[in-house]
Amino acid sequence: MNESQSSLRGRTASPADDADRAVLALVADGQLESLQELYDRYKTMAYSIAVRITSDASLAEDVVQDAFLGVWRNAGRYVEGRGSVKTWVLSIVHHRAVDAVRRRRPTTELPEREDVPPPALQAPDIWHDVAAGLDREEIAAAMGTLSPVQREAIELAYWGGLTQQEISERTGTPLGTVKSRVRLGLLSLRRALVGDEDGLSDLSDLAGDGT
Amino acid sequence: MTEPRMTHEQARDLAAAYVLGALERSEEAAVRDHLATCVEPHPEFEAFGGVVAALDLVDLELVEPPASLGARIMAAAAADLAAHPRTSAAPVAPPAGAPAPAPAAAPTPFPSAAERTARAERRRTGAFDWALRIAAIVAIVVSGAYVLNVQGQLDRARAFDQAVAAVVQAGQQPGATTVVLAQQKDQHGSGIAAVASDGSVTLAMRDLLATSGTQTYTAWVIVGSNAPVNVGDFAVDASGARAFTTKAVPTPAGAIVAVTLEANPGNPAPKGPIVSAGQVPSPPPAASS
Known about the structure:
The structure holds two protein chains of two kinds. By secondary structure, chain A is mainly alpha-helical. Chain A has helices at residues 15-28, 32-54, 57-74, 85-104, 128-133, 136-143, 148-158, 164-171, 175-194. Mean pLDDT of chain A is 77; it is low at 1-12 and 113-130. By secondary structure, chain B is of the alpha+beta class. Chain B is built from nine helices and eight strands. Chain B has an eight-stranded antiparallel beta sheet with strand order 5-4-7-8-1-2-3-6, with helices on one face. In chain B, a hairpin with a 5-residue loop joins β2 (190-195) and β3 (201-206). The longest helix of chain B has 18 residues, at 154-171. Chain B is elongated. The termini of chain B are far apart. Chains A and B meet through α2, α3, α4, α5 and α6 of A and α2, α3, α4, α5 and α7 of B.
């Protein structure tokens, strides 16, 4: 445990994280070869996420290019202790992919083109390494603790790029119910994955009303 | 839509949707603004944020991206670096009004030959080879000769990215060399080019003025004191960017590749001003290994 690094809230960095941060520092320094290294490391995950969200191989390529160019330009803004480099990179891919599909939907507020990767999803994920150690079956089992409507709401949000309002419209469910489903679903996932010991009880009131 | 300033409770309420990316971007920005200034703890963002990483691991069918995507990204990054040199990169004075010097002595921020060889073995596609070439270009054009005005013009930059990708493709072929085309005094337009072993030149130009009517840009190859040879005409749209592959004529090391702006296509000799030009260097060491 790294008690000295109190800002990391006890999070222990894995060797992979350390290596990633070293590579990212070189990217920030303008080393093309380090960008290539980072890309090679995460291209499959990145492209898979983009394909899943956009359902369009060619758009997914643009998204991944856009995202890695964002990483290239903003590597210096990565904040250590706010999630791993991997999470940061993949969250930028996710964000850009959602922007891309929202741009195709005339009903939504059009996102402005951002040159700076937003820190969405950059909340410190203290248990990232725990999660990384889990296998797909364990995570699938955790997903199994969700009710079908919770799972649907989370998937529409995360993979469909829909806003809560759009999920409400699409599923014919009141907005408040959608919000509850999303919150309860994430709480349930967290409980199944990391247990209840680190302050989760503080969040119980977030479950909200009903459903 | 502009939101009123967000309260602590409102931000808390939106935490789950925020980490999932399920807010309108304006709401998201309001949450971010709140988090940046809020003195109260927001453990819910941390708690939910981590869960999201697990969603990437479940039910995600892994798909390999096409090999060309990596090349595209690296080309775009190289072009971006040329446009916005990092502070640590030492700027090089632009060659005013003269063709770019051969990049033989240019320092490159790249690993040793041994490291490159090791990598080349791992990566049979040769993606690294072109990256080295681009880097050699970047090293000598980090300043005014190659100012890419990309801020707020991402679409234009993208058009140029595509053009650079074509150069990268051509530059990967055996025997190919790369040329920097420097903008000439009082002109608009610069670019890079790959000279194939058959002498054809694939150009990626940007910042050119759009052509109108019969106006055309003409590419020329000049060998020694010989007369310039017209190797092709091309028009340019409002993007100012253009990829173009010329006719194949002998284009040895030392030859000048130039682009002029002409009143009409098909001129046997240049009449218009030289917009951009560069000299074909000796093949870089990376090409022979």
